[in-house]
Design brief:
Elements lengths: L2 E3 L6 H7 L9 E3 L2 H10 L4 E2 L2 E2 L1 H10 L6 H10 L10 E5 L6 H12 L3 E4 L30 E4 L11 E8 L8 E5 H6 L3 H8 L24 E4 L2 E5 L15 H12 L3 E3 L5 E6 L3 E5 L15 E9 L4 H14 L1
Parallel strand pairs: 2-5
Antiparallel strand pairs: 1-2, 3-4, 5-13, 6-15, 7-14, 8-13, 8-15, 9-12, 9-14, 10-11
Length: about 325
């Protein structure tokens, strides 16, 4: 039977690194070993261009709509329910940490397949779904795979088709105790601004990054509006904290700073251990991290290793079908 359990207390080092950000003790949804092993056996690493293959998606959905998966599927659907403003907009799942790295990645891809269609937006050497390498001080400290703090952001805010879901899978936690994940509620933060600020953020005049050599996200879109209304859909808040330092946004930093301050008021920190999968709805939640712990003296093969994959929204995915079924029963 799938379970929902409370985690152990957060380590003091992580609390200190969060720097006044409230540390949330989140419910972790447990993917039982039987289901994880079934996913690893039923699915492969096969890709179709930048997408996990249709055969893999179908196989994963069969596993996670079968016996023993009902509680997990329902809990995941509730945490990512877009129709309920009180839903968190993110979910943290605990996969069996004793599985091998490849098995963890295949099982985690299977979990993503119940909310959408998994894909990568940045091609890595082998073209596999999960991107990411061991943390390195040689990388920009604030980048993915770097050692410093990372400001709250959504992935790819500067393209036509922003990925609906992003996810982080931990293969190795920071042995120095840092790197807590930060989660900020974009819609709640936007609601804290006055209408004049929201109107200013609707103007298509903002810039972020470069948006080069991406997959599955459409064309580069710059400049863009931070707040974008989309008919029949939840709004997009195209946000990245580094927009505050981008000279192309000079003259508009005051409103960006006000939004950043509002977002900080909604932000919590959560800790991730090996085998834990964080799934984030980018229409609702921005993510970032605190700095990693002291890295001096850590040998290669021991530092933090976290990987990332995206997913499109698929209304036919089991999690959304579960919500539809609950809604139909409630209206009966």
């Amino acid at each position: 039977m799938s379970q929902i359990t409370e985690p152990s207390a957060v380590a003091p080092a992580t609390v200190a690194q969060a720097q006044s950000v409230p540390v949330e003790d989140p419910v972790r949804l447990v993917l039982p070993r039987t289901l994880a092993v079934a996913l690893a056996a039923a699915c492969t690493t096969q890709m179709e261009e930048h997408r996990w293959s249709a055969g893999n998606v179908a196989a994963a959905r069969r596993v996670l709509t079968g016996g023993g998966a009902e509680v997990l599927l329902g809990a995941l659907a509730e945490r990512l329910d877009r129709s309920r403003p009180s839903s968190p907009g993110w979910a943290l799942l605990a996969l069996p940490a004793a599985l091998e790295d490849g098995e963890l990645q295949v099982a985690a891809a299977g979990v993503l397949a119940v909310v959408g269609c998994p894909f990568f937006s940045i091609r890595q050497g082998d073209g596999w779904l999960w991107i990411g390498e061991e943390t390195s001080a040689a990388k920009d400290a604030a980048s993915f795979g770097g050692t410093g703090a990372q400001a709250l952001h959504i992935d790819a805010p500067n393209v036509e088709c922003v990925p609906e879901y992003t996810s982080l899978l931990v293969l190795r936690a920071d042995p120095a105790g840092g790197g807590a994940s930060l989660l900020g509620d974009l819609r709640a933060a936007m609601a804290r601004l006055d209408e004049a600020d929201r109107e200013a953020l609707r103007e298509p005049v903002f810039f972020e990054g470069q948006a080069e050599d991406l997959r599955g996200v459409g064309a580069r879109r710059m400049p863009f509006p931070v707040l974008e209304d989309e008919e029949g859909q939840p709004v997009w808040v195209r946000w990245a904290g580094k927009m505050l330092r981008d000279p192309r946004n000079a003259g508009r930093t005051a409103v960006l700073e006000r939004f950043a301050a509002a977002l900080a008021e909604t932000t919590v920190a959560v800790t991730l251990g090996r085998g834990q999968l964080l799934v984030v709805d980018q229409r609702r939640i921005a993510h970032g991290r605190t700095a990693l712990g002291y890295q001096q003296g850590l040998a290669d093969g021991t530092r933090r290793w976290i990987t990332q994959a995206k997913a499109t929204f698929d209304p036919a995915a089991p999690a959304h079908q579960t919500l539809n079924a609950v809604g139909r029963r409630g209206n009966a």
